[in-house]
Amino acid sequence: MAGIAWVNGKLAAPEEPAISPLDPGFLYGEGLFETMRAYRGRVFRLSQHLDRLLDAAPQIGLTPPARQVLENAIAEALGASGLEDGSVRLTVTPGPTKRGEPTAVVLVRPLALPPAEWYATGCRAVSVTAAHAMADPLRSIKSLNYLDKLMAQRAAAQAGAEEAIIVDPDGFVVEGAMRNVFAVLRDAVVTPPLSRGLLPGITREAVLEVMGERPEVQCSARDISLAELHGADECFLTSSLAEILPVASVDGHLMAAAPGPITRMAVECYRRLVAAELDLGGELKRPG
Predict the structure, then answer these.
(1) How many of the other CB atoms lie within 10 Å of CB of 149?
(2) pLDDT tops 60 at residue 1
(3) What is the C-alpha to C-alpha distance for residues 123 and 142, in angstroms, rounded to an integer?
(4) Is 155 exposed, middle or buried, given 0-12, 13-18 or 19+ CB atoms closer than 10 A?
(5) Most exposed among 109, 201, 204, 225, judged by the fewest C-beta atoms under 10 Å?
(6) pLDDT at 82
């Protein structure tokens, strides 16, 4: 396996065993993680990713390493990997003794994107009813308890789709199994509000920023019913690695266009933002 792992200050191949079987992260899924994307050796919005992890830590009683330690670990792992473009996953658990000696792992691997045809013509999605209450505090933090989302994604695959969109018992869209959801309803770009119990995605926030600056587009966070999503003009999913992924259909209901003009605008605006914040010199090529 290509890539490298930084585990509590030591570099190793990703496949080498380095985590204690007594670690609560392994035993009980007790811990947090962040998945980030590196462009030419630099992580986009690293500060926001670390803010999210450090803000969530007290909610589960986790004492993570100091922020500077995590920043240095990510930089060291990226440098040692030799990869300019790649995925960076930071995982923090309490450690095997739970005595203020947490386990921190930075895994850097080559970037693996969805198939190019998904970007070109959109992916198929199906709705999956949430198994847990939206009030569950774990839903709004990026914890290692990811089984419900993995099960939703497996249900989508069994239905012949590529992506799952989680819907709450009231019939409102929450998020994708692995990504946030946006819908284009006429000239308005909307995404479910955080009050629906979704993960506050870093890419979601960036898309809200850049689309909010376009005077020709209304952009907001509000409730979206599943029926509205079925009738949307466009739909797209956002995540740090995949960036913006167009959706061709939801539950067999075809979008008017995939990718449509608003989705293409979002892609262009987002890519310009990445290039500008990382000082990459011009726009990046589109993914896929």
Answers:
(1) 20
(2) no
(3) 24
(4) middle
(5) 225
(6) 94
**Alpha carbon distance 4, 273 (integer Å):** 28
Could you count the other beta carbons within 10 Å of the beta carbon of residue 43? 22
Q: Where are the beta strands (DSSP E) in 27-84?
A: 32-39, 42-43
Residues of the chain with CATH 3.20.10.10: 116-277
Q: Which residues, listed in sequence order, are joined to residue 34 by a DSSP beta bridge?
A: 90
At the second CATH level, the architecture of 116-277 is: Alpha-Beta Barrel (3.20)
Burial class for 232, CB neighbours closer than 10 Å (0-12, 13-18, 19+)? buried
Start and end residues for every CATH 3.30.470.10 domain found in the chain: 4-110
Interval 107-156: pLDDT, tens = 999 999 999 999 999 999 999 998 665 556 677 899 999 888 999 999 99
Is pLDDT at 57 greater than 60 in this prediction? Answer: yes
Instruction: Evaluate whether the domain defined by 4-110 bears CATH number 3.30.470.10.
Output: yes
